[in-house]
Structure formats: structure tokens, C-alpha cells
Request: fold
Amino acid sequence: MPFLKTIDTNLFHSEIPYKPMGKYVHFLTLRITESYPLFQTDGELNKARVRAGIQEKNTMSRLSMFKRKQSTPERLVGRELLRNYGLITADECEYNVSFAMDNPDCIIYGFAIGDSGSEKSKVVVDTAFSITPFDESHETFTLNAPFENGTMTSKGEKGSKPGEVTSRINQQDHIRPQVFFPSIVTLKDPTESSFLYVFNNILRTRHYGAQTTRTGRVRNELLGVIFADGEITSNLRWTQAIYDQMKAKNTLPTLDPLDEEDVIDAATTAIEQLMTQEFIVHTDYISGDFQPLLNEVKTLVGNEAGMKAILQQADAEAKEYAQKHISSKKKAKAKSTN
Reply:
């Protein structure tokens, strides 16, 4: 029985196909920092020098949120739910250690286990870029590690000299709150349950970036979904189009954070204009058309019965896929080596 009543079920496959079948769903996501996350490599914040807009030809440095910084936290949220509802256990399927190869996480997000097998991810996420420049989107903090007495002055702990000031001081760049990263998450060949599984993971994920920090709070605002028979515009081009929209309306303050409503309006207008330039068949649920779907999905995943039903359906589809296309291949390979 279909879960959704607000959209046409013909947009989904009835089962997970083995070969690419040319159905895509694109989640239009606005990632908004709400604390001081770290998106970094080798101790430095990731950034790229790119053109400011499509019309605005000046270059600028933007913060970058690499694809794995986005997909991994969302994937881990989904795995938590699968364990919570008893569909996987930590012993049989542990992320980046041992994959069970037959659950929604493994089949939808993919895995690679050397000679044991692999599955290409059906979720495609590309690097996202901040709307605002690097210099306006980060700040440097001085970090220290005080003694238990709450000060930086030793009282003779572990052989240190009483009164000695510790040198455990460091500096680290952090991304500021209310920095916006437009990001398009693409799911290839969705079934209804895989669509809801990925949708829910995006809605629920709250922390991104360096996992060793106590910060990293990010809120995902979904602005719409686009069903299509191909891929759509890139994160960078969408971000540049948003920048052009906001500059034209003079809503790009140089010091204060961007106003969220201004960003959402600009992002919606920008993606609608960009989609008019596409040469693919697409069905758009954006702005007012998207709200009934969003409300229905939130209602479904906001109660235990609905969440459990979605996960069970996704698990059944994953196991059927694994039985047909993974287990059979392993058996055939084992026979050929005997």
C-alpha cells in the first residue's frame, strides 16, 4: 500500500532496479549552520576560489562542504534508526568495518568490501559552497585546556611546577552560525520507501563536520523535490544564482548574517529559473506545491508506527535486491572457484 497520497506513485519504482533506469529525485536542501562547525582537511577549513555569481563575474573565496561531510552524517542517522527498530545489529553491520550488504543503508548508500562485494551508492551528493565569502563566514578561536581547578595555572599536577601556566593553547578557525550552504541531494531510481528513507535522514540529521568536536550543529531546510529523468544543475551554479538574486535585491549585508527568509526566497526563485533552462523531463514540487508533501512526510516519520512501516518496507526491498543481485553472484563465484 502506498505511503504518500500527495504525489503520483508512478514517479517511483515498485522495486529497486539492478540497472540504472533513468529516474532521479533531487532534494533541494538549504544547510544552515547553527553553531560553529568545522568542515576541514589537514587542520584548515575547506574553501574554493570561484566566481561570485553567474552574472556577477568577480571571483571570491567560498567555504566548501565536501560531499562526504554531508552524506556520512545522514547515513549514520539512518543506521541509528535501523538499529533502534531492530532491523540491523552492530555485530552484523558496522559502518566502515563490516557491512551486512542486505539492508537499506548498504543498498541505498552503497558499500565496498574488497573481494567480498560492492554496491554503488544510489545517493549522489556534491560539494556545497557558502553563499557568503570565506572572510565573512568564519572566525578564529583560541582554544585552551585548563586544569581541573578551572584555570590555566598548575597546582603541581603530575610533577608540574605550582604556579606554572600551561602551554596547552591552540587556535582554530570555525564556521560562523547562520552561514548557508545550498545543496542538492540526488537519489537514483527511487522506490517510495527509499525516497522516504533518504528524505527522513536529511530532515533528522543535525550535526555535520568534525566528529571530534562538541559543536557542528546544522539545520536542514528542504525547499522542494524535483523528479526527473536526468540530473539537474550543480550546487555551485545554484549558489551563484542565489548570490545574483540577493545582490539584485540588495539583501547581501557585509557584516550581519543573511536573513533566512531572504535566502529561501532567492534560493526558490533561482532554482525555478535554472530549471527553465534544463532540457530534461521533470516534475517539480517547490514552494507552495512542496508544502503538502513536506507536511505528509513529517506526519509519517513523526510517529512510531509510520516510521517503523517505512523502515520495514525499505528493509524488505533491500533484502529482496540483495538476494537477487548480491547473494546469487557470490554463490556463482564460489562455484566457479571450486
In short: The chain has a mean pLDDT of 87. The CA atoms of residues 23 and 189 lie 5 Å apart. The two ends are 44 Å apart (CA to CA).
